[in-house]
Protein backbone atom coordinates (compact mmCIF):
# COMPACT_ATOMS: atom_id res chain seq x y z
CA UNK A 1 0.00 0.00 0.00
CA UNK A 2 2.98 2.32 0.43
CA UNK A 3 2.89 5.01 3.05
CA UNK A 4 -0.50 6.53 3.60
CA UNK A 5 -2.69 7.65 6.42
CA UNK A 6 -4.45 4.74 8.02
CA UNK A 7 -8.17 4.91 7.43
CA UNK A 8 -9.72 6.87 10.28
CA UNK A 9 -13.13 5.72 11.44
CA UNK A 10 -15.18 7.93 13.76
CA UNK A 11 -14.54 6.93 17.37
CA UNK A 12 -17.45 6.93 19.83
CA UNK A 13 -17.56 9.94 22.19
CA UNK A 14 -15.74 9.64 25.52
CA UNK A 15 -18.32 8.58 28.12
CA UNK A 16 -17.84 11.34 30.70
CA UNK A 17 -16.88 14.21 28.42
CA UNK A 18 -19.41 13.15 25.82
CA UNK A 19 -22.09 13.50 28.48
CA UNK A 20 -20.84 16.99 29.36
CA UNK A 21 -20.87 17.98 25.70
CA UNK A 22 -24.46 16.76 25.40
CA UNK A 23 -25.38 18.75 28.51
CA UNK A 24 -23.79 21.87 27.04
CA UNK A 25 -25.73 21.42 23.81
CA UNK A 26 -29.05 20.85 25.63
CA UNK A 27 -31.27 23.95 25.17
CA UNK A 28 -33.78 23.04 27.95
CA UNK A 29 -34.83 26.26 29.81
CA UNK A 30 -34.34 24.81 33.31
CA UNK A 31 -30.59 24.68 32.63
CA UNK A 32 -29.70 27.86 34.52
CA UNK A 33 -26.71 29.67 35.89
CA UNK A 34 -24.94 29.29 32.55
CA UNK A 35 -23.00 32.52 32.99
CA UNK A 36 -21.95 31.69 36.53
CA UNK A 37 -20.72 28.30 35.42
CA UNK A 38 -18.45 29.98 32.92
CA UNK A 39 -16.65 31.88 35.65
CA UNK A 40 -15.96 28.81 37.77
CA UNK A 41 -13.33 26.14 37.60
CA UNK A 42 -15.33 23.56 35.70
CA UNK A 43 -13.47 21.30 33.29
CA UNK A 44 -13.35 22.34 29.67
CA UNK A 45 -14.24 19.66 27.15
CA UNK A 46 -11.48 17.47 25.75
CA UNK A 47 -10.98 19.73 22.71
CA UNK A 48 -10.99 22.90 24.81
CA UNK A 49 -13.12 26.02 24.55
CA UNK A 50 -14.95 26.24 21.19
CA UNK A 51 -15.04 30.05 21.43
CA UNK A 52 -11.31 30.24 22.03
CA UNK A 53 -10.60 27.76 19.25
CA UNK A 54 -12.55 29.79 16.69
CA UNK A 55 -10.79 32.99 17.72
CA UNK A 56 -7.40 31.26 17.56
CA UNK A 57 -8.23 29.99 14.10
CA UNK A 58 -9.14 33.50 12.91
CA UNK A 59 -5.92 34.93 14.31
CA UNK A 60 -3.75 32.47 12.43
CA UNK A 61 -5.69 31.99 9.19
CA UNK A 62 -7.40 35.40 8.86
CA UNK A 63 -9.81 35.49 5.93
CA UNK A 64 -8.75 31.97 4.85
CA UNK A 65 -10.39 30.57 8.03
CA UNK A 66 -13.88 30.75 6.53
CA UNK A 67 -12.80 28.30 3.82
CA UNK A 68 -11.56 25.75 6.34
CA UNK A 69 -14.94 24.82 7.80
CA UNK A 70 -15.27 21.40 6.18
CA UNK A 71 -11.73 20.21 5.99
CA UNK A 72 -10.04 21.20 9.21
CA UNK A 73 -10.25 20.50 12.89
CA UNK A 74 -8.80 22.46 15.80
CA UNK A 75 -8.00 21.51 19.37
CA UNK A 76 -6.91 23.60 22.36
CA UNK A 77 -3.88 21.68 23.69
CA UNK A 78 -1.40 22.60 26.43
CA UNK A 79 0.09 25.67 24.78
CA UNK A 80 2.55 25.62 21.87
CA UNK A 81 4.62 22.77 23.27
CA UNK A 82 1.49 20.67 23.69
CA UNK A 83 0.37 21.54 20.15
CA UNK A 84 3.69 20.38 18.71
CA UNK A 85 3.51 17.23 20.80
CA UNK A 86 -0.08 16.46 19.83
CA UNK A 87 0.78 16.94 16.14
CA UNK A 88 3.81 14.65 16.48
CA UNK A 89 1.89 11.91 18.29
CA UNK A 90 -0.98 12.02 15.81
CA UNK A 91 1.16 12.15 12.67
CA UNK A 92 3.58 9.48 13.91
CA UNK A 93 0.63 7.14 14.18
CA UNK A 94 -1.51 8.12 11.19
CA UNK A 95 0.82 9.65 8.59
CA UNK A 96 3.78 7.42 9.45
CA UNK A 97 6.50 9.63 7.99
CA UNK A 98 9.90 8.06 7.45
CA UNK A 99 11.46 11.28 8.77
CA UNK A 100 10.61 14.61 10.26
CA UNK A 101 12.81 17.43 8.96
CA UNK A 102 13.64 20.11 11.52
CA UNK A 103 15.69 23.27 10.94
CA UNK A 104 19.32 23.39 12.03
CA UNK A 105 19.31 25.18 14.37
CA UNK A 106 15.86 25.29 15.93
CA UNK A 107 13.95 25.44 19.20
CA UNK A 108 15.52 22.67 21.25
CA UNK A 109 12.23 20.91 21.94
CA UNK A 110 11.46 20.04 18.31
CA UNK A 111 13.99 17.23 18.34
CA UNK A 112 12.89 15.84 21.73
CA UNK A 113 9.20 15.98 20.90
CA UNK A 114 9.57 14.08 17.62
CA UNK A 115 12.08 11.60 18.99
CA UNK A 116 9.65 10.78 21.79
CA UNK A 117 6.93 10.27 19.20
CA UNK A 118 9.20 7.62 17.65
CA UNK A 119 9.91 9.44 14.36
CA UNK A 120 13.46 9.62 12.94
CA UNK A 121 14.65 13.20 13.03
CA UNK A 122 16.59 14.66 10.11
CA UNK A 123 17.89 18.22 9.98
CA UNK A 124 17.78 20.69 7.12
CA UNK A 125 20.32 23.45 7.00
CA UNK A 126 18.54 26.69 7.89
CA UNK A 127 21.15 29.26 8.79
CA UNK A 128 24.47 30.21 7.28
CA UNK A 129 26.90 31.52 9.87
CA UNK A 130 28.91 33.01 7.00
CA UNK A 131 26.17 35.13 5.39
CA UNK A 132 24.12 35.37 8.61
CA UNK A 133 21.09 34.68 6.46
CA UNK A 134 18.82 31.74 5.64
CA UNK A 135 20.75 28.99 3.86
CA UNK A 136 18.02 28.57 1.26
CA UNK A 137 20.11 26.39 -1.06
CA UNK A 138 21.05 24.03 1.77
CA UNK A 139 17.43 23.97 2.94
CA UNK A 140 15.97 23.14 -0.48
CA UNK A 141 18.64 20.50 -1.14
CA UNK A 142 17.93 18.76 2.16
CA UNK A 143 14.15 18.82 1.65
CA UNK A 144 14.57 17.50 -1.86
CA UNK A 145 15.78 14.25 -0.28
CA UNK A 146 12.55 13.85 1.71
CA UNK A 147 10.00 11.17 0.82
CA UNK A 148 6.27 11.72 0.25
CA UNK A 149 4.43 12.18 3.57
CA UNK A 150 7.59 13.15 5.41
CA UNK A 151 7.02 15.98 7.85
CA UNK A 152 8.74 19.38 7.65
CA UNK A 153 8.77 21.72 10.63
CA UNK A 154 8.71 25.37 9.60
CA UNK A 155 8.70 28.22 12.07
CA UNK A 156 6.05 30.66 10.89
CA UNK A 157 7.95 33.85 11.81
CA UNK A 158 10.63 35.27 14.11
CA UNK A 159 12.68 32.07 13.93
CA UNK A 160 13.99 30.81 17.27
CA UNK A 161 16.98 30.96 17.79
CA UNK A 162 18.40 32.69 14.70
CA UNK A 163 16.05 35.67 14.30
CA UNK A 164 16.26 35.10 10.54
CA UNK A 165 13.11 34.47 8.47
CA UNK A 166 12.59 33.45 4.84
CA UNK A 167 11.73 36.14 2.31
CA UNK A 168 8.38 35.83 0.52
CA UNK A 169 10.18 34.53 -2.55
CA UNK A 170 11.99 31.90 -0.47
CA UNK A 171 8.72 30.85 1.18
CA UNK A 172 7.28 30.29 -2.31
CA UNK A 173 10.31 28.17 -3.27
CA UNK A 174 9.73 25.98 -0.20
CA UNK A 175 5.99 25.80 -0.93
CA UNK A 176 6.69 24.63 -4.49
CA UNK A 177 9.02 21.92 -3.28
CA UNK A 178 6.61 20.90 -0.55
CA UNK A 179 3.81 20.50 -3.12
CA UNK A 180 6.03 18.65 -5.60
CA UNK A 181 7.36 16.22 -3.01
CA UNK A 182 4.02 15.88 -1.13
CA UNK A 183 5.48 16.82 2.22
CA UNK A 184 3.37 17.46 5.29
CA UNK A 185 4.22 20.82 6.85
CA UNK A 186 3.85 21.52 10.55
CA UNK A 187 4.02 25.27 11.09
CA UNK A 188 5.21 26.21 14.55
CA UNK A 189 3.74 29.63 15.24
CA UNK A 190 5.01 30.85 18.59
CA UNK A 191 5.71 34.51 17.80
CA UNK A 192 2.84 35.84 15.69
CA UNK A 193 2.86 39.63 16.07
CA UNK A 194 6.41 39.70 17.40
CA UNK A 195 8.21 39.82 14.07
CA UNK A 196 6.62 42.91 12.54
CA UNK A 197 4.05 43.95 15.12
CA UNK A 198 1.40 43.05 12.53
CA UNK A 199 -0.58 39.92 13.33
CA UNK A 200 -1.66 39.40 9.71
CA UNK A 201 1.75 40.15 8.23
CA UNK A 202 3.38 37.57 10.50
CA UNK A 203 0.91 34.90 9.34
CA UNK A 204 1.63 35.44 5.65
CA UNK A 205 3.52 32.18 5.11
CA UNK A 206 0.98 30.04 6.99
CA UNK A 207 -1.86 31.50 4.93
CA UNK A 208 0.04 31.06 1.68
CA UNK A 209 0.73 27.38 2.37
CA UNK A 210 -2.87 26.88 3.46
CA UNK A 211 -4.06 28.25 0.11
CA UNK A 212 -1.90 25.58 -1.52
CA UNK A 213 -3.45 22.80 0.53
CA UNK A 214 -6.89 24.04 -0.50
CA UNK A 215 -5.92 24.32 -4.17
CA UNK A 216 -4.25 20.95 -4.70
CA UNK A 217 -6.28 17.81 -4.32
CA UNK A 218 -3.30 15.57 -3.68
CA UNK A 219 -1.81 17.72 -0.94
CA UNK A 220 -1.14 15.67 2.20
CA UNK A 221 -2.44 18.38 4.57
CA UNK A 222 -0.92 20.76 7.07
CA UNK A 223 -0.82 21.56 10.79
CA UNK A 224 -0.32 24.79 12.70
CA UNK A 225 0.91 24.58 16.29
CA UNK A 226 -0.04 27.96 17.74
CA UNK A 227 1.17 29.45 21.00
CA UNK A 228 -0.25 32.46 22.85
CA UNK A 229 2.54 32.48 25.44
CA UNK A 230 4.51 35.35 23.95
CA UNK A 231 1.97 37.47 22.09
CA UNK A 232 -0.43 37.54 25.08
CA UNK A 233 2.23 37.26 27.80
CA UNK A 234 0.39 34.20 29.14
CA UNK A 235 3.41 31.95 29.55
CA UNK A 236 2.36 29.99 32.63
CA UNK A 237 -1.29 29.71 31.60
CA UNK A 238 -0.45 27.31 28.75
CA UNK A 239 -2.65 28.74 26.01
CA UNK A 240 -2.39 27.41 22.47
CA UNK A 241 -4.13 25.67 19.62
CA UNK A 242 -3.48 22.93 17.11
CA UNK A 243 -5.11 23.29 13.71
CA UNK A 244 -5.09 20.32 11.36
CA UNK A 245 -6.10 20.70 7.73
CA UNK A 246 -7.05 17.20 6.78
CA UNK A 247 -6.26 15.85 3.31
CA UNK A 248 -9.36 15.43 1.13
CA UNK A 249 -9.56 11.67 1.22
CA UNK A 250 -9.77 11.53 5.00
CA UNK A 251 -12.63 12.02 7.42
CA UNK A 252 -12.30 15.22 9.47
CA UNK A 253 -14.42 13.73 12.24
CA UNK A 254 -12.22 10.64 12.28
CA UNK A 255 -9.06 12.75 12.63
CA UNK A 256 -10.71 14.85 15.35
CA UNK A 257 -11.71 11.71 17.25
CA UNK A 258 -8.12 10.44 17.13
CA UNK A 259 -6.74 13.75 18.37
CA UNK A 260 -9.26 13.75 21.21
CA UNK A 261 -8.40 10.18 22.14
CA UNK A 262 -4.75 11.20 22.53
CA UNK A 263 -5.71 14.22 24.64
CA UNK A 264 -8.05 12.17 26.85
CA UNK A 265 -5.30 9.67 27.60
CA UNK A 266 -2.60 12.28 28.19
CA UNK A 267 -4.17 15.14 30.15
CA UNK A 268 -7.97 14.90 29.67
CA UNK A 269 -8.64 18.57 28.95
CA UNK A 270 -6.75 21.86 28.74
CA UNK A 271 -6.63 24.73 31.26
CA UNK A 272 -9.49 27.22 31.10
CA UNK A 273 -8.22 30.45 32.63
CA UNK A 274 -5.69 31.67 30.05
CA UNK A 275 -7.99 30.81 27.17
CA UNK A 276 -10.79 32.83 28.77
CA UNK A 277 -8.43 35.83 29.00
CA UNK A 278 -7.71 35.53 25.26
CA UNK A 279 -11.44 35.25 24.57
CA UNK A 280 -12.21 38.35 26.65
CA UNK A 281 -9.58 40.40 24.85
CA UNK A 282 -10.34 39.28 21.32
CA UNK A 283 -14.11 39.59 21.70
CA UNK A 284 -13.93 43.17 22.97
CA UNK A 285 -13.19 45.74 20.26
CA UNK A 286 -11.33 48.14 22.56
CA UNK A 287 -9.29 45.45 24.29
CA UNK A 288 -8.40 43.91 20.96
CA UNK A 289 -7.23 47.26 19.61
CA UNK A 290 -5.15 47.73 22.74
CA UNK A 291 -3.61 44.27 22.33
CA UNK A 292 -2.67 45.05 18.73
CA UNK A 293 -1.17 48.37 19.80
CA UNK A 294 0.79 46.58 22.56
CA UNK A 295 2.24 44.15 20.01
CA UNK A 296 3.33 47.08 17.91
CA UNK A 297 4.92 48.77 20.93
CA UNK A 298 6.72 45.58 21.88
CA UNK A 299 8.09 44.84 18.41
CA UNK A 300 9.10 48.49 17.89
CA UNK A 301 10.94 48.44 21.21
CA UNK A 302 12.81 45.32 20.14
CA UNK A 303 13.75 46.95 16.83
CA UNK A 304 14.99 50.07 18.66
CA UNK A 305 17.11 47.89 20.96
CA UNK A 306 18.56 46.10 17.92
CA UNK A 307 19.58 49.42 16.40
CA UNK A 308 21.07 50.67 19.67
CA UNK A 309 22.96 47.42 20.31
CA UNK A 310 24.34 47.38 16.77
CA UNK A 311 25.66 50.93 17.03
CA UNK A 312 27.24 50.33 20.42
CA UNK A 313 28.78 47.01 19.33
CA UNK A 314 30.26 48.63 16.23
CA UNK A 315 31.85 51.28 18.44
CA UNK A 316 33.18 48.71 20.92
CA UNK A 317 34.55 46.21 18.37
CA UNK A 318 35.13 48.19 15.12
CA UNK A 319 33.29 45.34 13.34
CA UNK A 320 30.14 45.15 11.23
CA UNK A 321 27.11 44.11 13.32
CA UNK A 322 24.46 44.98 10.71
CA UNK A 323 22.84 41.57 11.09
CA UNK A 324 21.83 42.30 14.69
CA UNK A 325 19.59 44.97 13.24
CA UNK A 326 18.23 42.99 10.30
CA UNK A 327 17.35 39.89 12.34
CA UNK A 328 13.73 39.60 13.43
CA UNK A 329 11.86 38.88 16.65
CA UNK A 330 13.01 38.35 20.20
CA UNK A 331 16.32 36.67 19.51
CA UNK A 332 19.66 37.45 17.98
CA UNK A 333 22.16 34.84 16.98
CA UNK A 334 25.30 36.76 17.90
CA UNK A 335 27.90 34.32 16.60
CA UNK A 336 29.69 34.46 19.98
CA UNK A 337 31.46 31.22 20.86
CA UNK A 338 30.60 29.02 23.82
CA UNK A 339 33.74 30.26 25.58
CA UNK A 340 32.86 33.90 25.01
CA UNK A 341 29.36 33.20 26.33
CA UNK A 342 30.72 31.67 29.52
CA UNK A 343 33.12 34.61 30.00
CA UNK A 344 30.14 36.95 29.61
CA UNK A 345 28.34 35.07 32.36
CA UNK A 346 31.25 34.58 34.75
CA UNK A 347 33.01 37.93 34.38
CA UNK A 348 30.20 40.29 33.39
CA UNK A 349 27.00 38.60 34.67
CA UNK A 350 25.46 38.81 31.20
CA UNK A 351 23.50 35.67 30.32
CA UNK A 352 23.20 34.26 26.78
CA UNK A 353 22.48 30.69 25.71
CA UNK A 354 25.63 28.61 24.98
CA UNK A 355 24.69 28.81 21.27
CA UNK A 356 25.28 32.58 21.40
CA UNK A 357 21.56 33.37 21.31
CA UNK A 358 20.76 36.68 22.94
CA UNK A 359 17.24 37.68 23.98
CA UNK A 360 16.55 41.24 22.90
CA UNK A 361 13.69 41.41 25.42
CA UNK A 362 16.27 41.46 28.22
CA UNK A 363 17.80 44.69 26.89
CA UNK A 364 16.69 48.17 27.88
CA UNK A 365 18.02 51.73 27.86
CA UNK A 366 19.61 51.07 31.24
CA UNK A 367 21.71 48.02 30.31
CA UNK A 368 22.34 48.01 26.54
CA UNK A 369 25.54 50.05 26.89
CA UNK A 370 26.94 47.68 29.51
CA UNK A 371 26.01 44.56 27.47
CA UNK A 372 27.74 45.97 24.36
CA UNK A 373 30.80 46.81 26.46
CA UNK A 374 30.86 43.28 27.94
CA UNK A 375 30.59 41.69 24.49
CA UNK A 376 33.39 43.96 23.27
CA UNK A 377 35.58 42.82 26.19
CA UNK A 378 35.14 39.08 25.57
CA UNK A 379 35.90 39.58 21.89
CA UNK A 380 39.29 41.21 22.56
N1 LIG B 1 7.85 26.88 19.44
C1 LIG B 1 8.88 27.73 19.52
C2 LIG B 1 9.69 28.00 18.30
C3 LIG B 1 9.19 28.35 20.74
O1 LIG B 1 10.22 29.19 20.79
C4 LIG B 1 8.39 28.07 21.87
C5 LIG B 1 8.67 28.68 23.20
N2 LIG B 1 9.95 28.99 23.50
C6 LIG B 1 7.33 27.17 21.73
C7 LIG B 1 7.09 26.59 20.50
C8 LIG B 1 6.42 26.74 22.83
O2 LIG B 1 5.89 27.72 23.61
P1 LIG B 1 4.79 27.44 24.73
O3 LIG B 1 4.74 25.99 25.02
O4 LIG B 1 5.23 28.25 25.89
O5 LIG B 1 3.53 27.95 24.15
UniProtKB/TrEMBL annotation:
InterPro entries attached to this UniProt entry: Aminotransferase_I/II_large, Asp_trans, PyrdxlP-dep_Trfase, PyrdxlP-dep_Trfase_major, PyrdxlP-dep_Trfase_small
GO molecular function: L-aspartate:2-oxoglutarate aminotransferase activity; pyridoxal phosphate binding
Family annotation (Pfam families): Aminotran_1_2 (PF00155)
Cofactor(s) this protein cannot do without: pyridoxal 5'-phosphate
SUPFAM superfamilies given in the database record: PLP-dependent transferases
CDD domains membership: AAT_like
Domain of life: Eukaryota
GO biological process, one term: aspartate biosynthetic process
Domain Aminotransferase class I/classII large intervals: 35-375
GO cellular component assignments: cytosol
Annotated keywords: Aminotransferase, Pyridoxal phosphate, Transferase
Family recorded in the similarity comment: Belongs to the class-I pyridoxal-phosphate-dependent aminotransferase family.
UniProt subunit comment: Homodimer.
Name the record gives this protein: Aminotransferase class I/classII large domain-containing protein
Annotated organism of origin: Penicillium atrosanguineum
Amino acid sequence: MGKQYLDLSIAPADTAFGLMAEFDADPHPSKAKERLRETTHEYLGIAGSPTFINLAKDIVFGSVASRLQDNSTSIQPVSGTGANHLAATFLACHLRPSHVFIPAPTWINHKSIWEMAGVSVAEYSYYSSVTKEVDIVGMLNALDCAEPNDVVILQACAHNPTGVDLSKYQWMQVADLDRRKKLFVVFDSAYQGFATGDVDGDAWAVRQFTEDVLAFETHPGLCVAQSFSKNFGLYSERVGALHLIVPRHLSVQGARGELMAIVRAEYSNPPRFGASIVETILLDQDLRAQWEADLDTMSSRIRRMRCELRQRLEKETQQDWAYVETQIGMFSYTGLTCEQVSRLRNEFHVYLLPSGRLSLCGLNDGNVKYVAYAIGEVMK
